[in-house]
TrEMBL record:
<keyword id="KW-0560">Oxidoreductase</keyword>
<dbReference type="GO" id="GO:0042602">
    <property type="term" value="F:riboflavin reductase (NADPH) activity"/>
</dbReference>
<dbReference type="InterPro" id="IPR012349">
    <property type="entry name" value="Split_barrel_FMN-bd"/>
</dbReference>
<dbReference type="GO" id="GO:0010181">
    <property type="term" value="F:FMN binding"/>
</dbReference>
<dbReference type="InterPro" id="IPR002563">
    <property type="entry name" value="Flavin_Rdtase-like_dom"/>
</dbReference>
<feature type="domain" description="Flavin reductase like">
    <location>
        <begin position="82"/>
        <end position="229"/>
    </location>
</feature>
<dbReference type="Pfam" id="PF01613">
    <property type="entry name" value="Flavin_Reduct"/>
</dbReference>
<dbReference type="GO" id="GO:0006208">
    <property type="term" value="P:pyrimidine nucleobase catabolic process"/>
</dbReference>
<protein>
    <submittedName>
        <fullName>Flavin oxidoreductase</fullName>
    </submittedName>
</protein>
<dbReference type="InterPro" id="IPR050268">
    <property type="entry name" value="NADH-dep_flavin_reductase"/>
</dbReference>
<comment type="similarity">
    <text>Belongs to the non-flavoprotein flavin reductase family.</text>
</comment>
Length: 235
C-alpha cells in the first residue's frame, strides 16, 4: 500500500530499456521441472511501446511512487475510500514445489477477452510471494457465499490453510483446488509486474470450470471490511 510519505529522489531507468516490444518472462521451467527441484528464472519487468513498467515508469523523470504520492493523499484516506469499493472474493492456489500455497485475494480482475487475460496482485510481504514469482501456472477460485469460511482461512495462518485435506484435491497438473467452488480458472502466468509494494500477476486463462450446483451461484463479496452476499437490486 501507499505509505503516505513524500517521495524521495526520482530513479527513472527509462533510458536503460529502449526496447519497444513486450518482453515477457524469458525463461520458465515446467511444473514437473520445479517439482523435481530445478531452478526457475524469471524476469520481472517488461516494456511496451511508449510505456515501461517493472523497474521503470512510462513518464520519464518520474517513478511510480512519485506520481502516486504527488497529490499527498494519506494512507488512511486511501484505505477509507477503497473500503467502499465492493470486490468479489477469490482464493489463489498454486504448487510451490514444496507444498500447496494459497491466499485470499480481492484484487482479481479480468483484463482482456482475446487473449483471455486476468490479473491479481500479491503484496511483497506475503509469505506466498516467492511461490507466486516461481509459478508457471495457478488456479483462481471465484468464491460463493457458502465459502466465507475458506476466505477467512486463507487470509489467516499460512501453515493451516491446507491442513484439512478433505477440503481440497489436486489437478493432474499439480495445482491444489478447493471443493465446491462456483468457478475456478486455471491460469498460465504470463508476466509479473512489480508495482509499489506489490507484484501484479498477469495470467492467461487456459481452463474455466463452473460448478452447476445451485448453492454455489451466489458470489461472495468483500465490502467495508466484512463479507457480504450479492443481492439483486430492485428496479
Ligand atoms: C478480503 C481479503 C482480500 C485480500 N486480498 C489480497 C490481495 O488481493 N492480494 C494479497 O496479496 N493479499 C490479499 N489479502 C491478504 C492475504 O489473504 C493474506 O492474508 C496475506 O497475504 C498475508 O498472508 P501471509 O500470512 O501468508 O503472509 C486479502 C485478505 C483479505 C481478508
Amino acid at each position: 500500500m501507499v505509505d503516505g510519505t513524500v517521495a524521495g529522489p526520482v530513479t527513472s531507468t527509462v533510458a536503460e530499456h529502449p526496447a519497444t516490444e513486450p518482453v515477457p518472462i524469458t525463461s520458465r521451467t515446467t511444473l514437473r521441472d520445479r517439482l523435481s527441484g530445478r531452478q526457475t528464472l524469471q524476469v520481472v519487468s517488461f516494456q511496451i511501446p511508449g510505456a515501461v513498467f517493472g523497474r521503470s515508469h512510462p513518464v520519464p523523470g518520474r517513478s511510480v511512487a512519485a506520481s502516486v504520492r504527488a497529490p499527498g493523499i494519506r494512507v488512511e484516506q486511501y484505505r477509507s475510500a477503497l473500503r467502499r469499493h465492493p470486490a468479489g472474493v477469490t482464493i489463489v492456489t498454486l504448487e510451490s514445489g514444496s507444498g500447496p500455497v494459497g491466499f485470499t485475494a480481492t484484487s482479481f480482475t479480468s483484463l482482456s477477452l482475446d487473449p483471455p487475460l486476468v490479473s491479481f496482485n500479491v503484496t511483497d510481504t506475503s509469505s506466498s510471494i516467492d511461490a507466486v514469482r516461481s509459478a508457471e501456472s495457478l488456479v483462481i477460485h471465484l468464491l460463493g457465499e457458502h465459502q466465507q469460511h475458506l476466505a477467512r482461512r486463507f487470509a489467516r495462518s499460512a501453515a493451516e490453510r491446507f491442513s484439512d485435506e478433505s477440503m481440497w484435491t489436486r489437478l493432474e497438473t499439480g495445482e491444489p483446488v478447493l471443493h465446491g467452488t462456483p468457478v475456478r480458472l486455471r491460469v498460465v502466468v504470463d508476466r509479473l509486474i512489480p508495482l509499489g509494494d506489490s507484484t501484479l500477476v498477469v495470467g492467461c486463462v487456459v481452463h474455466a470450470h463452473e460448478d452447476p450446483a445451485d448453492e454455489s451461484r451466489i458470489p461472495l463479496l468483500y465490502y467495508e471490511g466484512a463479507y457480504h452476499r450479492l443481492v439483486a437490486a430492485e428496479e
